[in-house]
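Appendix B. Chain record.
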Amino acid sequence: MSDRRWDIARKAKRIVVKVGSSVLTSDGQLRSRVFGELARQIHEAGARRQFVIVSSGAVAMGSRMLGWTHPGRSIPEKQAAAAVGQSSLIETYQKRFARHGRQVAQVLVTRSGLQERERFLNARNTLSTLLDLGVVPIVNENDTVATDEIRFGDNDNLSATVVNLIGADLLVLLSDVDGLYESRPEAGKPLPPRFDVIERIDAGVKRAASGAGSAFGRGGMTTKLEAAETAAHSGAATVVCNGRRRDSLAKLISGEPVGTLFLPGDRMASRKHWLAFTTHPRGQLVLDAGAVRAVRENGKSLLPAGIVAVQGRFGIGDPVACIDDAGVEIARGLAAYASDEVERIRGLETRKVAKVLGYSNGTAVVHRDDLVLLEPPEPAR
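Structure tokens predicted for this chain:
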């Protein structure tokens, strides 16, 4: 008897497909057949489904074109390889989709750009318009200008952000493995059992994920779990499957159990999701025990009286991390006051704020409407 939970993939209307370097390349060499097969499968899925592709491969393609056998030994070299390879990457997709009468669009993003709410909404509007026009957006991180401080770090996590951007139903992570195994595979030994459906990513599932991607890729199974968790908070399911196997995407969206399925969680409001998973805190507010309870258990705003320390520099409207006395981030929010102002009013009653600062921007340092709770870390077993 078939598992009806896989019907999630069959019923999905908006789908984000992340294609890893391990699928598009082999030892740095381009596997050109993959591009054509992906275009064909998306075309055959029909007009009722909309796809966004998050594609790796620019660095690998650029490295090959530069005659390198490595993906660059420094950040400037990697950025140079990305600059050389990105145009060829999008041209390859363009040619393959043109065979089916489909247009593609190049969309390059950085985390710092999407951290600004206005740019995030602009990106959403652009992607939604492209999808409505029948265009297939090809999204990649702008590696040419991204640095460690402003990058997503891997396309697994970028693809989960795109899920929130477009309100996707399904995230498909095409890799070079058949899914998540219950223990790490070892060379020369039979493959361990594979997870079929995962309802919740707990400590046991996280322990099963280990290892890194290829030399030309940044992601491993751990980043795929992170992406699945992030997508779940958008109300989307995630499937990790082998993109090197023929018609894996077509089989999946026809309802076949392909790979490992991560079930969706409760859908978080898009703005809260953006705040929790896309923004990068500019500073930290250390809360006392009473403030932790008020924020976490009672859904209250963060008031000045509950702040015992201010760390970092931030301005009004910047994202800040709310941490307890052990340094654990319990919530993230948008600051109503700049860091130097919070330093002056921390520990004070709200009625004294205007007197100390000479003005008031509200009673809360972080209003509950601009605050999202973060799940506590899973305890080790």
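Further analysis of this model is presented in Appendix C.
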